[in-house]
Specification:
This protein has 289 residues and is an alpha/beta fold. The protein has a single domain, classed as Rossmann fold. Helices cover 28% and strands 17% of the residues. An 8-stranded mixed β-sheet has the order 3-2-4-5-1-8-9-10. Strands 6-7 form a two-stranded antiparallel sheet. The termini are far apart. The model has no long low-confidence stretch (mean pLDDT 84).
């Protein structure tokens, strides 16, 4: 049966048409999120917003850029309007605009064309950086955010994530979570540490959402990801078939991390296979030849 113009059948869709995986890794501090960047085949670029990230990546062939404030406002503030210690100058409100300018310059110069993977570490600290900027714009630097500040933060973060999601790159974003009561269901569960509706809207932009966990014992080092949702982790999503509910992503040889973890899972799923789907870096090499 011949289909009308513009109508397609999903059985004929290729990985190139579907696009590369957009992965959100959620978990507590020390659950092994950042180390999964090291397992990705090809060339990887990391935007670092978390002060502890570089200690994990140090010594490995990873290109990165850090956007972290050097001066934080330490003035104590009361919830009562107009009460608080004097706010001293800080560079925190300028970090977002510095990152925005840098990203637009890199994008214009096609800097990302040479990379197969783009990583964000972490979503949680990035959202703090955005709020610092919003508070400065609204004339409330160092004060508690108001309702219109949260709305502006959600819009800014949403636009940033959508921009990256539109790229044909493997994306990995990390985010922290907290065990708390869900406002809608009153159930205790792991909730992504994002503002309001961002908890619902942001996951929609990712094809894969995994919960990371350290399952080590006194005798064994083990890290795993949960690939199917349950009552404790309802936001998990996985489009890959034949994965166990809990996949071992432990890096057993730190000199060869690309043999393990999420990188291995992606290769097993047919990504980074030059015979099926060439990476951006491979295509660039072919063009140069």
């Amino acid at each position: 049966m011949e289909l009308p113009n513009g109508v397609q059948n999903a059985k004929d869709a290729t990985k190139d048409e579907v696009g590369r995986p957009k992965i959100l890794l959620v978990g507590s501090t020390g659950s092994g999120k950042t180390s999964q960047f090291l397992t990705l085949p090809g060339k990887t670029f990391v935007y670092i917003f978390d002060p502890s990230a570089l200690s994990t990546l140090r010594g490995h062939d990873i290109t990165y850029q850090i956007f972290i404030p050097k001066l934080i406002n330490l003035a104590a503030q009361s919830l009562s309007k107009g009460k608080g210690d004097p706010v001293k100058p800080t560079d925190a409100p300028d970090i977002y605009i510095n990152w925005e300018t840098d990203f637009e310059k890199k994008n214009k110069e096609k800097f990302f064309d040479d990379y197969d993977n783009i990583c964000f570490d972490s979503f949680t600290t990035f959202s703090d950086m955005v709020m610092d900027r919003i508070l400065k714009i609204n004339g409330r630097t160092g004060q508690f955010p108001q309702r219109d500040d949260w709305g502006a933060q959600m819009q800014t973060i949403g636009n940033a994530v959508r921009t990256f999601a539109a790229m044909n790159k493997t994306l990995i974003f990390t985010a922290h979570d907290e065990f708390k009561q869900d406002d809608a269901t009153s159930r205790m569960q792991n909730v992504i540490m994002l503002t309001g509706r961002l908890r619902v809207k942001m996951p929609l932009l990712f094809s894969e959402i995994y919960h990371c966990d350290c399952a080590s014992t006194a005798k064994e080092i083990k890290y795993q990801i949960q690939t199917r949702p349950d009552r404790m982790n309802p936001t998990i999503r996985c489009t890959f078939r034949n994965l166990d509910m809990f996949e071992d992503v432990t890096i057993e040889d730190w000199n060869n991390p690309k043999k393990y973890g999420i990188g291995k899972i992606l290769k097993d799923q047919g990504y980074y296979d030059s015979a099926k789907q060439k990476t951006p870096a491979a295509l660039q090499e072919q063009h140069n030849e």
